[in-house]
Specification:
Chain A: This is EKC/KEOPS complex subunit CGI121. The complex is a heterotrimer of chains A (196), B (375) and C (259). By secondary structure, chain A is an alpha+beta fold. Chain A has helices at 26-38, 56-71, 80-88, 94-101, 125-138, 150-156, 159-165, 179-192, and strands at 4-6, 14-25, 46-49, 109-119, 144-146. Chain C folds into 2 domains: 3-106, Phosphorylase Kinase, domain 1 (2-Layer Sandwich), CATH 3.30.200; 120-251, Orthogonal Bundle (Transferase(Phosphotransferase), domain 1), CATH 1.10.510.10. In chain C, helix 6 (191-208) runs antiparallel to helix 7 (213-228). The chains are: A alpha+beta (196), B alpha/beta (375), C alpha+beta (259).
Chain lengths: 196, 375, 259
């Protein structure tokens, strides 16, 4: 069982839970999608695909911004879970953000990132329980719970598609600097200025 | 101060006297000032011996035209001079110099007043001193308020400038990129059919007190400069819809929160809030730039209470900040400020030959060599 | 800075240690050791960050205040994103809160032996203090000046205007110049606006580094020219800006207008 526990300095009373599942089959994902639309309380989580998640830093940035927006009355989405999805997107349209960053059941299998922001917990047990719960929703023989790692994320992203949706085709990238870092910086900027 | 201001002291006297003539717009003013010998300062302040003014008032709905204003000045100038001399109890030969507004301002009125100045100078055989109108406001403001080295906001019918002193010049740090503040208020009043009596700006201020809803108007600050023509254009469109006999639904004419209709009072309120915010903002920028914490407001619009209140709120948020404003005797154009600034330059040897006393409509504040200051 | 502004920022960022770096009319700049969302940011300096804060102004109507704070903060972040896209050296944005007027960004520059931050200004000043007059105009200084000129050339080539170029708004990181502070920035393709941008810097150099201003400015313009390259169309643009710069020098920044 692997998952991340993140606490942001500005929000010490919030704990962010993140876990990653690789190769989740299409049929499981379709169920998740349906349940999300139905508003099943068992699925009150933020589910993402990893197609455009360029790095953990970029992911954290969007989660942080979503919490900030929620806490300061600047959010556009109804729930924090959808606000996270929205803040991953450079496009000012929630449906578009869902399509790109939400559960992807268009392929045979897909990677899934699950996020939940909960009020502060001191012991890890409750997060263990949460991950067990998610595992039951997503775990099959084919899929596996893997750690959240930059190298893995970068490998799964189609760079040319990524550049297209983040409007980075005309961006001047340096040959000498790490590409993942450069794209991370630009993606964070693109999301921040969304709609402005 | 290492400046020697006493090279021109008359033998046997320990003071100077100057008469100032102002007529760059619709006010004709004559004033006589007395400076004691030595460095000016709190212990040696200038004495206003007389300060007489007559304003050319036009019928409601009309502005003052150069030709008519000049005629008014010509008609009154002798009487006003006589009264100023009588009030002060001095005669022409007692004076050290005659000071006049050389610009900026309206051509014809300036010219009619300079003729009076030249005549007096020749009559009494006195030197002439040409004074920049803006520098007159600044020096008088400093003298009256005791502000040592303030950032000056000069706001009047024809001027909108942020000025600060640096190396013997009053440098313009910011100004309007299009129209002057007073001009903007006048034109706004005309669009909304607000009376000119006693002054459009005054009536806007009174109506603004009854405004409740804020209409967001274009807010254009570029560094230390501002632009006001966008606001006028915007209000033009609103006013057309407001006064149209077949009212069109304009969503900008309905307050978003209460759903109530926007009134002319609301527009006055919004205009003041926007314009004066812009002015206060560029003043604060200039203060930060020159590291000053004093503000001096001069010019006719400087008497607006809301502007003064906003300026005070800004200044209170700065360490050791202080705000200085003069009352209407000195805020509104007058002769005494011309006499005061003129006498300072006279004492530094800046006089004009008759042939150099031509007035100019354009005369920038920073063209004047402020050699009476050396800080 | 007054207690009110300190109180405001402490309410917005509770528990974040802040050190004031500078205070302008519009914004206060703080330094902090806390990154908002990761302990291992991929930045040049992973331990220090800058927070730029535009406090609300009491004199403004709350509605005007809110809309100005939001649009200016967003505008600045947008400008910085455009810079990043164009590969122009400037701090990276870490995060932003438009409504409350906060921009969290990368901290650039080192601490000089004098204890000051390595801005272009402080670097030149420390050189002017410690070296002989000949060494003040040596090759390494020429190289930095040219790089600064080139950086501004790149900026203008992208039709971006800084609006407040001074030697303290350029920071050296490992001897490489970066632009900072885009509070007065704008977009323009007009040669006039670019010329005014250059003129403001030229005047700033003259007043802060008067001893060697002539040389510094000469090198800055040399670097500026280099940024435009040899392409015929770009050359023409460069020549146009230089023509306007001459005009602006003649008349000063402001045009003459009716009093």
């Amino acid at each position: 069982m692997v998952f991340e526990k993140v606490v942001f300095p500005s929000y010490p009373h919030k704990t962010v839970f993140i876990s990653v599942f690789a190769n989740v089959p299409k049929n499981v994902l379709s169920v998740v999608k349906t349940k999300l639309i139905e508003g099943d309380p068992n699925y009150e989580l933020c589910f993402l695909n990893t197609n455009y998640i360029i790095s953990t830093e970029y992911l954290y940035s969007a989660i942080y911004k979503a919490i900030l927006n929620f806490e300061t009355g600047q959010s556009k989405a109804k729930t924090l879970n959808t606000e996270i999805i929205f803040n991953l997107s450079p496009v000012n349209n929630i449906m578009d953000a869902f399509k790109r960053f939400g559960v992807d059941d268009s392929q045979d299998q897909s990677n899934v990132i699950c996020i939940k922001v909960i009020d502060y917990v001191s012991d890890g047990n409750c997060l263990e329980d949460l991950n067990t719960h998610i595992s039951k929703l997503l775990h099959t023989d084919a899929s596996q719970n893997i750690p959240l790692q930059d190298a893995y994320l970068f490998k799964t992203v189609d760079i040319s598609k990524f550049k297209k949706i983040f409007k980075l085709n005309d961006a001047k990238l340096s040959e000498s600097e790490n590409l993942q870092i450069q794209l991370t910086r630009l993606a964070i900027g693109a999301c921040l200025i969304r709609g402005n | 101060m290492t400046v020697d201001l006493d090279k021109r002291l008359r033998p046997g006297r320990d003071y100077y006297l100057a008469l100032g003539l102002e007529g760059s717009a619709n006010k004709l003013g004559v004033g006589i000032i007395r400076h004691g010998v030595g460095e000016p300062g709190p212990h040696n302040s200038a004495q206003v011996l007389s300060n007489v003014r007559d304003t050319y008032i036009t019928p409601p709905g009309e502005g003052f035209l150069p030709r008519d204003t000049a005629r008014h000045h010509r008609h009154w100038v002798v009487r006003i001079i006589k009264r100023a001399l009588a009030d002060a109890g001095v005669c022409g030969r007692d004076l050290d110099c005659i000071c006049f507004t050389q610009g900026p301002g309206m051509g014809a009125p300036l010219q009619s007043v300079v003729i009076a100045a030249r005549t007096l100078a020749q009559l009494w055989n006195l030197p002439l001193v040409g004074v920049n109108h803006c520098v007159g406001h600044i020096e008088m403001g400093r003298e009256i308020t005791g502000a040592q080295n303030p950032v000056v906001l000069y706001v009047s019918g024809g001027n909108t400038q942020i000025i600060a002193y640096s190396r013997q010049r009053y440098r313009i740090f910011g100004e309007t990129l299009d129209i002057a503040i007073g001009n903007c208020l006048d034109r706004f009043a005309r669009v909304l059919k607000i009376s000119n009596d006693p002054a459009p700006g005054y009536n806007i201020e009174q109506m603004a007190k009854k405004g409740r809803h804020l209409v967001e108007l274009p807010y254009t600050v570029k560094g230390m400069d501002i632009s006001m023509s966008g606001i006028l254009q915007y209000v033009d469109v609103l006013a057309k819809d407001m006064f149209s006999s077949t009212p069109k639904k304009n969503k900008n004419l309905v307050d978003q929160e209460s759903g109530e209709l926007i009134t002319p009072e609301d527009l006055c309120f919004s205009l003041q809030e926007s314009l004066y915010s812009m002015l206060v903002e560029i003043t604060e920028r200039a203060m930060a730039h020159v590291q000053s914490n004093q503000v001096l407001i001069v010019g006719g619009v400087g008497s607006n209470e809301r502007l003064q209140e906003m300026m005070e709120l800004m200044v209170n948020d700065r360490k050791n900040g202080s705000i200085h404003a003069t009352d209407e005797r000195f805020c509104i154009d007058n002769g005494i400020m011309i006499a005061h600034a003129g006498l300072l330059s006279y004492r530094m040897g800046q006089t004009k030959e008759l042939k150099d006393t031509v007035c100019t409509q354009r005369f920038r504040t920073d063209e004047v060599w402020v050699n009476w200051r050396d800080d | 800075m007054t207690d009110r502004v300190v109180q405001l920022v402490e309410d917005i960022l509770p528990g974040i240690p802040l050190q004031v770096v500078s205070q302008g009319a519009e914004a206060v700049v703080f330094r902090t050791g806390v990154h908002p969302y990761t302990a291992h940011p991929s930045l040049t300096n992973p331990n220090q960050f800058i927070i730029k804060y535009r406090p609300s102004k009491k004199y403004r109507h709350p509605k005007i205040d809110a809309s100005i704070t939001k649009s200016r903060t967003a505008g600045e972040v947008k400008f910085m994103h455009r810079l990043a896209k164009a590969g122009i050296n400037a701090p990276n944005v870490v995060s932003a809160d438009f409504k409350r007027g906060l921009i969290w960004m990368e901290h650039l520059g080192e601490v000089l032996p004098s204890g000051e931050v390595s801005s272009f200004k402080n670097h030149l000043w420390s050189v002017e203090r410690t070296r002989s007059p000949d060494e003040c105009v040596s090759e390494d200084i020429q190289r930095i000046c040219e790089q600064v000129g080139q950086l501004i050339g790149q900026l203008h080539h992208n039709d971006m205007i800084h609006g407040d170029l001074t030697s303290s708004n350029i920071v050296l990181q490992k001897k490489v110049p970066y632009l900072i502070d885009f509070g007065l920035s704008s977009y323009s393709g007009l040669a006039e606006d670019k010329a005014v941008d250059l003129y403001v810097l030229e005047r700033a150099i003259q007043s802060t580094h008067s001893m060697y201003a002539y040389k510094y400015n000469q090198w800055l313009l040399k670097g500026y020219e280099a940024a435009y390259g040899t392409n015929k169309q770009n050359r023409r643009k460069y020549v146009e800006v230089m023509g306007k710069l001459e005009d602006v020098r003649q008349r000063g920044r402001k045009r003459s207008m009716l009093g």
